[in-house]
Amino acid sequence: MVNLIEVALDTLTKTTKTDIRLHGVENVPAQPVLYVINHFTRMETILMPYVIKKNIKRYPISLAHHSFFSGELGNFMNKVGAVSTTDPNRDKIFINALLTDSYPVIIFPEGQMIKDKKIIEKGKYLVYNAGIRRPPHSGAAQIALRTEFVREKLRKFRAGGDSSSVDRMAAHFGFDSAETNKIISKETYIVPVNITYYPVRAQENILSKLAGRFVKNISTHLQEELEVEGPMVLGKVDIDINFGKPMSAKNYIASNKKLSKLLRDDNPYLDAGEFKKIDSFKKTCVSMMHDYMNAIYGMTAVNHDHLMSYILTKYRNSFSEDDFKNRIFLAIQYLRKIRVTNCHTSLYRKQFYLLNDDYHEKYESFIKESIYSDYIKLDNGIITKNKERFSRKSDFHTIRRDNIIEVLRHEIEPLRDLTRAIDRLMFLPAFFVRWKIKNHFIQLETDLFEQDYQKYFIKAESKPRNIGKPFFLKRFFGRKGVILVHGYMAAPEEIRPLADYLYKNGYNVYGVRLRGHGTAPEDLAIRKWDKWYSSASRAYIIMKNSVKKFSICGFSMGGGIALMQAANKPGKFAGVIAINAPLKLKSVASKFAPIVNLWNKLLSKIHVDKVKMEFVENTPENPEINYVRNPVSGSNELEKLMKQVEDQLKDVKCPALIIQGSDDPVVNPVSGLGIFEKLGTKDKQLLRIYAKHHGILRGEGADKLNAMVLMFLEKVSSGN
């Protein structure tokens, strides 16, 4: 039966998107172990024996509620090594397993599924049971301490030559007295384990539908369990299982002088009732129980849903969506600062994606669920909480389906350092939060430039720092702004003349540095186009937290990135401007970039570098700014970017200005018209400037271009 279950679960985990991730398995000692595990779902009674057998190579026996031990289900439970809570030999079975190290033991200390995750009330551990809140059971601590107490007694009797007492204990606990030396060479440990699921979403699934079709009068409880736990088995759910540091039962006995004293007398203490009368034993059990409960819930794998649920519950009744996202971001920063050790892997990744207003799967999923469940309304960027929904009490047995936000908030309440930090965050005024976010990203962009500049600096080739460094021209009390994006192989200095002009005319201006630029060609050679896009996204976050209304303007490749930003952020920009943005390049060599790039990769794989063509010579119009060597890999990424931009032009819905030089020697002049025709917005203009050079931000015609840009910005910034 055990092997059949293992095969079935192996098949299930391979064929579904459920991802079981184990952490801390190395903490499990090669000694008798009692696992204490938090209990949130029905499936854990089968899942955890499978996980332990598969990864630790020991199949455990476990304690299960007596209601499961009737009929065919009872036979199944017996075959998989479950022991009923009402079995009169329950304690002896577990003590025997731990003494002889024949089986590990699993006990769920809460005593039942804790569907509401509410385990702390007024600073104490209390769990729901039969309509009341009670402390968690200390049974696991009792088993572990009694086992180790018996082991120490055996050691004393064996050392004293008292074979009669050894035989009595062997007969009582069901082991062969000949194994005594092996038993006393071991030590009992409790290993706390935490299981965290992400995401938790109740929804109809094939299991709940089948049950509804074939089971008459299905109970509300069972329906809820199928709707909540079905997606965990069949859907895309991450299950983080954290194994904590082992807790030595021997050390707990040694730390209690009165309990240690009992080890020196001649009483074998075979009757469990004797221990119940010993205050020092009861106190040690309670102490151990609190320690392993702290360890279990201290290992909760914090995720986005936890933080969003906590903030949504604690924050005021109405607030902007931008403010909500900002506070989530800062909560994640706090989480890293206080070094919460267990987090979902998504929290270790870059978090600016939460703020850049592109599609964010985890955020959108949470907001969609919150709106669907009537927790909030979202209108014109303002979140309004449904106060009645938040104050409504949910039934314990259906709370996972009816009020998952409360469940998620409860789950991180034991992490007091984290929740206290978030509570403090709730008191910060919105303008101060924006200031913190803005400064964080300004500093980040500066740091990234300095790191890249130092790493890739080439004497006599790299330009001075001021050429490549991003800049922010800020106007106090300015309410309008523009993001400027430079072109391929260039640097922020390329857009400086336009930036100065717009700043003098009342605009806050941020000059982006695209990663790989402003340093050296070797830096550009390793960058993918999405890194350039991300640089512009971070500039967006800076400007969004600086002014209320702003546009984005890009030159050459930067124009393509500006258009893609507008496509991905509908309603966020006042307008978008693309100047000499490429859909097609004039250079014949650029068409061969993908082939040459593939050739270089093949040569790298066979370790032949001499015939690789990684760079081609470039003769820029502005050699004091642009690179004089063009990485082939960079040209290949530019081709990919142009294709991506072309595919997304239909999604640009904000006002757009396309400016194209008439005789551009780099970008095929047909690009301007091609972009214009494919734009999704009806509010669009195409302006042509007579120019025989590509870099029309400088030199002849630049003043005319600046005036065109300003006129457009004034129009869209005023809303006319």
From TrEMBL:
<dbReference type="Pfam" id="PF12146">
    <property type="entry name" value="Hydrolase_4"/>
</dbReference>
<keyword id="KW-0378">Hydrolase</keyword>
<protein>
    <submittedName>
        <fullName>Carboxylesterase</fullName>
        <ecNumber>3.1.1.1</ecNumber>
    </submittedName>
</protein>
<dbReference type="GO" id="GO:0106435">
    <property type="term" value="F:carboxylesterase activity"/>
</dbReference>
<dbReference type="GO" id="GO:0016746">
    <property type="term" value="F:acyltransferase activity"/>
</dbReference>
<dbReference type="InterPro" id="IPR002123">
    <property type="entry name" value="Plipid/glycerol_acylTrfase"/>
</dbReference>
<dbReference type="Pfam" id="PF01553">
    <property type="entry name" value="Acyltransferase"/>
</dbReference>
<feature type="domain" description="Phospholipid/glycerol acyltransferase">
    <location>
        <begin position="33"/>
        <end position="198"/>
    </location>
</feature>
<dbReference type="InterPro" id="IPR051044">
    <property type="entry name" value="MAG_DAG_Lipase"/>
</dbReference>
<dbReference type="InterPro" id="IPR022742">
    <property type="entry name" value="Hydrolase_4"/>
</dbReference>
<dbReference type="InterPro" id="IPR029058">
    <property type="entry name" value="AB_hydrolase_fold"/>
</dbReference>
